[in-house]
């Protein structure tokens, strides 16, 4: 494998690992399983594509086809992470609520429906814009450090 792939995979792993202490700092709850879940701060998708794009820019140059492909691909991935995947996560919450409502109707309980905000991380498939930006910043830093550490002298 080439250095760009190693750096991108390292950036993804670093982003996933950072989700645990960031969540702990915000919620005072230790959840090691966040390493294997989607969503949350920072976006590992953004970190991976940003680190690869940064590495390519520094190694090959901005006017190359390699950089252009990586940049466009990265922008699509980041847009998808905060747009379509996030909407899918919110739709999942609504479907889960409807399932609970149907169960209440079938049990002849009093029916009360309320719209819920996303609470459970496992239902969050995508990212808030700030999570995507956080991942992108992490990726640029990782890609830059990776380039200078692996640069032939």
TrEMBL record:
InterPro entries: DUF212 (IPR003832)
Pfam family, one: DUF212
UniProt keyword terms in alphabetical order: Membrane, Transmembrane, Transmembrane helix
Residue ranges crossing the lipid bilayer per the database entry: 132-150
Full protein name: Divergent PAP2 family protein
Protein species of origin: Bacillus mesophilum
């Amino acid at each position: 494998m080439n250095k760009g792939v190693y750096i991108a995979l390292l950036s993804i792993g670093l982003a996933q690992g950072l989700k645990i202490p960031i969540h702990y700092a915000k919620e005072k709850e230790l959840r090691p399983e966040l390493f294997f879940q989607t969503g949350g701060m920072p976006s590992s998708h953004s970190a991976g594509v940003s680190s690869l794009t940064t590495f390519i820019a520094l190694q090959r140059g901005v006017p190359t086809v390699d950089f252009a492909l990586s940049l466009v691909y990265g922008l699509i991935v980041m847009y998808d992470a905060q747009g379509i995947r996030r909407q899918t996560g919110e739709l999942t919450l609504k479907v889960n609520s409807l399932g609970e409502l149907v169960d209440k109707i079938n049990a002849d309980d009093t029916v009360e429906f309320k719209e819920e905000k996303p609470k459970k991380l496992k239902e969050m498939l995508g990212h808030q814009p700030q999570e995507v930006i956080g991942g992108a910043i992490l990726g640029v830093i990782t890609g830059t450090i990776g380039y200078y550490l692996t640069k032939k002298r």
